[in-house]
Amino acid sequence: MKRLPLYLRLIRGLVHDGETYISSAVLAKELNLDPIVVRKDLAVTGVTGLPRLGFPAKAAELSILNFLGWNNTTDAILCGAGSLGRALLGYDGFKQHGLSIVAAFDVNPGVIGTMERGVHVLSMSEMEKIVPRMRVRLGIVTVPASAAQEVADRMVSSGIKGIWNFTPVKLSVPDDIVIQRVDLAASLAVLSHNLSLLDRH
Amino acid sequence: MKRLPLYLRLIRGLVHDGETYISSAVLAKELNLDPIVVRKDLAVTGVTGLPRLGFPAKAAELSILNFLGWNNTTDAILCGAGSLGRALLGYDGFKQHGLSIVAAFDVNPGVIGTMERGVHVLSMSEMEKIVPRMRVRLGIVTVPASAAQEVADRMVSSGIKGIWNFTPVKLSVPDDIVIQRVDLAASLAVLSHNLSLLDRH
Ligand SMILES: NC(=O)c1ccc[n+]([C@@H]2O[C@H](COP(=O)([O-])OP(=O)(O)OC[C@H]3O[C@@H](n4cnc5c(N)ncnc54)[C@H](O)[C@@H]3O)[C@@H](O)[C@H]2O)c1
Ligand SMILES: NC(=O)c1ccc[n+]([C@@H]2O[C@H](COP(=O)([O-])OP(=O)(O)OC[C@H]3O[C@@H](n4cnc5c(N)ncnc54)[C@H](O)[C@@H]3O)[C@@H](O)[C@H]2O)c1
Does residue B92 fall inside a structural domain? Predict the structure, then answer.
């Protein structure tokens, strides 16, 4: 299926140009392939073409993504199975949004090899192998501040595209990576400040 | 010091009306007291009057609050020393904002009487006694959803004025109580959604 990522890039370009339908003949010509092969490949991903119109561009893009497993936005891995990390592993609330933490990684031999609320805690050295194999694209960082940037770098190089950062460190990552910072201390400080405002009125 | 709360209410009224200075004679007249007693009481709280002008109203209000310990916006108690609660007890980040968790409460005999990262975990039955004595006004709720409202009610009746709510329950409290909700599942869902948006562009 080495051809699918090529179709994906072409289709994204066409979608960007405002095309709503794509024809297998156009894709075949661009990539110097047989149109029948292109039509068969697209059919395997599940998208159906319409007579005389071709394949709906957006639907074709998403079914290729789906087929490749590249649109997995619901599984996450967690690095740093310490006190906060382990609390997050045990939280059922993520399931309500269809999200789940599928594996955790740590450097502490005392927690490596354990199961925490049904999730395996593995050695950090396994991460680069496991993440691409499980096609995980979300990473949760709950390591000490001193290890945060290094862990983020390793996540990105293994294919992570979105990082949920609990550490106080401002992570520097490439432009196409989405970062969401959680600052619990600032949240409590806001409450404390609102309380002192109450005193003044 | 039963008189101080009476001065406080009067001074707040005067501040509201735009007064910048208050005189002990005015306070004494309103409350039918000896002006010398009023001047002595105010001096004890640490505020100093200015000749011919009187006491700066705002400063007088805050030093009475201070003296009574009613402006404590930096100490917090926590109810529900489970996996998330215990992770929060161990977090140094709160100290940077001058905040600290001074006591924790739970109903599970297995954790009552233990120390978690330097904080005593006490029985929930002690809360109504401890909170007023330590003049704590911030409460952290990390109990299961089923116990959240009951715990919030007990916090409010023991003097808590600001609640940091980690549970999925929308707490109903009187108007003068400040509530701050932390929804970690929603935060991860936002990241996941941003990631899927990335796919579409
Ligand atoms: N505990 C909280 O409530 C809380 C709140 C907000 C933010 N944070 C932040 O979350 C992070 C974790 O806090 P904690 O209290 O759980 O700390 P912790 O020390 O209990 O846990 C940290 C874990 O990370 C592991 N680790 C260290 N270096 C690593 C590396 N290079 N790769 C993988 N794992 C590594 C450790 O072995 C440990 O298990 C900190 O950055 C902290 O600032 C914690
Ligand atoms: N674990 C997480 O990462 C996480 C994330 C977001 C929100 N939450 C929310 O935080 C809350 C706690 O989650 P958890 O994972 O720590 O659960 P937990 O079951 O590990 O801990 C709950 C604790 O509350 C205590 N408790 C129960 N009833 C009580 C009562 N009436 N008074 C005082 N204590 C009482 C229990 O004994 C237990 O120690 C839940 O409401 C959950 O939805 C948890």
Answer: yes
Question: Residue B100 forms beta bridges with which residues?
Answer: B75
Minimal Cβ distance to B195: which of A73, A184, A194: A73
Banded pLDDT at B39 (limits 50, 70, 90): very high
H helices present in B34-172, as ranges: 35-45, 57-68, 83-89, 93-96, 127-134, 145-157
What domain count does chain A have?
Answer: 2
CB-neighbour burial class of residue B115 (10 A; exposed 0-12, middle 13-18, buried 19+): exposed
What is the rounded CA–CA span in Å between residue A145 and residue A156? 17
Report the distance separating Cα A94 and Cα B185, nearest Å: 5
Query: Domain of A154?
Result: 75-188
Given pLDDT bands bounded at 50, 70 and 90, which one contains residue B155?
very high
Q: Could you tell which of B77, B78, B79, B84 is best to mutate to test the pocket of ligand 2, judged by most ligand atoms within 8 Å of the CB? A: B84
pLDDT digits (tens, 9 = 90+) for A76-114: 999 999 999 999 998 988 888 888 999 999 999 999 999
Q: Which residue of B has its CA nearest to A72?
A: B196
- pLDDT, one tens digit per residue, over A27-67 is 999 999 999 999 999 999 999 989 889 999 988 988 898 88
Which residues on A lie below 8 Å from B160 (Cβ)?
none
- One domain, residues A87 and A160: yes
